[in-house]
Design a protein that fits this description.
The chain has 3 helices and 6 strands, in the order H-E-E-E-H-H-E-E-E. Helices cover about 40% and strands about 25% of the residues. The radius of gyration is 28 Å and the shape is elongated. The protein has 2 domains: about 80 residues, 2-Layer Sandwich (Beta-Lactamase); about 55 residues, no CATH class.
């Protein structure tokens, strides 16, 4: 069964806890609402899912709050201490999985950056032809930073001249330079 996902953003205003979910993220403690009609913090989902009770538990890594796991039921007083304990265990495992995914994504990003730097370094070291070296450096800068264009300003103190190298489109090999 495939479930549709909807993104709903709740602002986290530290002075005003606007929802059960936000209150859990601010306070770091689970909130069990046996009857949502009796709690002003209850905010229904836009889909209009009929809800009578709500349970939200914190998601933490160590002592650091990273979110909350929220559940709702169409039965009054549905969430028992056993269900709360089970949901908290799931939230804790989910937090660990999210942290691992975030760390893995960061490691991959850093590895790509280091590979690009290594590639540029090897290219620079393998050529003594100035236009080739400069072009390859600009290609690597564009690839590593995912930018549309890059430029380099070179200064030769002996001749007291500057050379502005601008790489407009690596794919077309359109590299222009001008003496100033």
């Amino acid at each position: 069964m495939v479930m549709a996902s909807t993104e709903v953003y709740f602002p986290l205003d530290r002075d005003k806890e606007e929802s059960v979910r936000v209150a859990v993220v601010h306070g770091g403690q689970a909130i069990n609402v046996p009857d949502v009609t009796q709690d002003s913090r209850y905010i229904p989902f836009p889909e209009g899912i009929p809800t009578c009770s709500e349970l939200c538990v914190p998601m933490k890594i160590g002592g650091r709050m990273i979110g909350g796991l929220n559940t709702e039921s169409n039965e009054l007083n549905y969430f028992s201490p056993d269900i709360q304990q089970l949901l908290q265990a799931l939230a804790t495992q989910t937090a660990v999985a999210l942290e691992n995914a975030w760390l893995y994504a960061e490691i991959r990003r850093r590895a790509r950056a280091l590979a690009a730097i290594n590639n540029a370094s090897r290219t620079i070291a393998s050529s003594l032809d100035l236009p080739t070296v400069l072009e390859q450096v600009m290609i690597e800068v564009k690839a590593m930073l995912k930018v549309e264009g890059a430029s380099m300003l070179l200064y030769t103190p002996i001749a007291r001249q500057t050379f502005d190298l601008v790489l407009l489109d690596v794919n077309l090999g359109d590299m222009t330079g001008r003496m100033c």
